[in-house]
Amino acid sequence: MATVDSDASARWPTSTESFTHPLTPQPPAAMAEADPKKVAIEEPVFDCKVDSEHKSTEIKLLSIAQPHMRAFHFAWIMFFTAFFSTFAPAALAAVIREDLDLTKSDLGEAGSAAITGTIFCRLVMGTFCDTFGPRYGFAFLMVLTAPPVFLMSCSTDAIGYICCRFFIGFSLATFVSCQFWCSVMFTGKLVGLANATAGGWGNLGGGVTQFLIPAIFTGIKASVPTFEAWRWTFFVPGAAHIVLGIGCLFFAQDMPDGQYAFLKKTGQMENVSAWKVIWLGVTNYRMWILTFTYGFCFGVELTMNNIAASYFFDQFDMDVVTAGICASMFGMMNLFARSLGGWASDWSSKRFGMRGRLWTLWVSQTMNGVMCIIMGRLHNSLAGTMCVMIMFSTFVQAAEGASFGVVPFVSRRALGVVSGFVGAGGNAGAAWMMNAFFKGEAGWSDYETYDAISYMGIVIIVVTMLVWLIHFPMWGSMALPATNLEMTEEEYSLRDYSEEEITAGMAKGAQLFAKNASVERGPKRHAEFQEVLAKTACAA
Questions:
Q1: Nearest-CA neighbor of 296 among 395, 180, 192, 442?
Q2: For residues 136 and 352, what is the distance between their CA atoms, to the nearest angstrom?
Q3: This prediction's pTM
Q4: DSSP type of residue 16
C-alpha cells in the first residue's frame, strides 16, 4: 500500500477547495460532483513511500515496480544507450580515420556535429515533455535515431561520417526527458540524488563505450577484415535503440498517477499553451545562468568524451584498445560521482537550504576547472595525467549533479523548459569548446591538445562565477540571505499563474510543491516559518 511521509500535507484538499488540480488525483465522489463528465478514479497504490504529490520519498534501486522505480531505470538505461551510441565513433576514431582517410579537422568537425545537433532537440524536448510526457519523448528519440546508428556502417567518406554523428547526437536530448521524469517521480528532498544518479549512470555510457566498443570491434575482427569489423560493430547500439524505445512505450508510465493522456482526459492535469510555458522559462534569469554554467560541466564531459581516446593514442603512443581503456576512466566516474554531487546538494540543503545547494555547485565546478588546468600541465606523465583526470572527472560529474539539484526549484510550471534549456547549454558549451580549442587549423585557433585542456580549465573557473548571481527572494543566494522573508514559496510559484488559473484550481500542483519546498529556507528559518504559519492558522 502507498504510505505518505508523516510531514507531508493531507491527501485531499478541503471541501471548500476546487478539485481541478493538475497533478494530484481527486477523490472520486468529489470529482464526479464537481464535473459529471469526469470519470471516477481509484486511489493509486505504490510500492514506494510517497509524499502529498505521490512523488517517491525513497530510491529502491533493486526494484522495477511501477511507476517510480521503473521510470528511474528506463530513464538512465536509455540515456546510457544514447551516450554509448553517440561516442562509439570516437572510441574507434583511430581505426575509422584510416579507413575513411579522415584528417584531424574532419574528426573535430564530427565531434562538434555530434554535440551541436542535439542543442535544438534539447530545447524542443523540454516543451515536448511538458506537453506529451517523458515516455513519448524517450521513445521517439530512441527509435528515430536508430537509422543513423545503423547507417554509420555505410559511411565511405568524411561527409557521411560527419552526417551520421550529427544525427546520432540527437539522441542526447534524452537527457531532458531523463531529468524531467525523475523530477516528477521523486520528492524535492530527494530530487538532487535521483536526478544525479539517473543522469550519472546515463553519462556512464560515454565511458563504457570507450572500452566496450573497441572490445566488440576486436571480437568481430577475428572473423572479418578490420575495415569491415568496425562497420558491423554499430549494429549493437542500433538494435538497443529500437528495443528500448518500443519497450518504454509499453512498459513505463509518465507520472505517478498515470499516463499524460489519461490524466488530461480525467481532468487531473491542465492543458496549457506550450508557448506560455516557454515564455515562463525564458523570462526567468536563473534558468539562463544555469544554462551557461552547465555548458562548462556537462559540456566539458562531452568534450573529453570526444578527444580523450585520440589524446591518449597520440600523446602516449598507445594502441586503440589501451587508449580506449584509459579514456574510459573519465566517463566511468559517472558510476558514483554525479550521484555524489546530487547527494551533496541534498545534504547541504538540509543544513543550509538553497544557499547550501548553490555553494555545492560553485565549489564542485570551480574545482573541476582547477583539475582541468593541472591535467593539461602533466602531459608528459601518463601516471600524473591519469590520476588528475580521475579527480577532474569526479568534480565534473559532481557539478552536473549539483546543477540539477537546483533546476527543479527554478520554475515548477516550466520544469520541462528549464530542464531543456539547461541541458542544451551543456551541448552548446561543448560545441563552443570544440571549436575554440580542439579543431586545429579548422577551428578558431590551433593549440596543442594539452594546452587546450588547460585553457579550457581557465574558462570553466571564470564562467562558474555566474552562480553567485542566482538569488531566490525567500531563500537567498551564495553571498546574501533571503531578501524577502515574508514571501512564501507558494507566492513564488503562483507568479507563473493567472488569477483565473488559480481560481480554477490549476495551481494546486504548484501549491503542494511549494509547501514541500519550504525546507529550502534552511532548518532554522524553516522552523521559524512553520511557527508563523501555525500562529496564523490559530488566529484565523
A1: 395
A2: 37
A3: 0.76
A4: T
Q: How far apart are CA 539 and CA 52, in angstroms?
A: 25
CA dist 357 and 341 (Å) reads 10
pLDDT in tens, 176-231: 999 999 999 998 888 889 999 999 899 889 889 988 999 999 999 999 999 999 99
Alpha carbons 484 and 502: distance in angstroms, whole number: 23
Nearest to 4 by CA among 55, 40, 42: 55
Angle between helices 298-315 and 320-332 (to 10 degrees): 160
pLDDT for residue 1 is more than 70 = no
Distance CA 416, CA 8 (A): 25
**CA–CA separation, 290 vs 418, rounded Å?**
9
With contact defined as beta carbons under 8 Å apart, do 301 and 87 qualify?
Answer: no
Pseudo-torsion of CA 391, 395, 397, 399, nearest 10°? 180
Q: How confident is the model at residue 473 (pLDDT cuts 50, 70, 90)?
A: very high
Report d(CA 255, CA 142) in Å as an integer.
20
Taking the chain, what is the end-to-end CA distance rounded to the nearest angstrom?
Answer: 35
Type of residue found at 185:
M
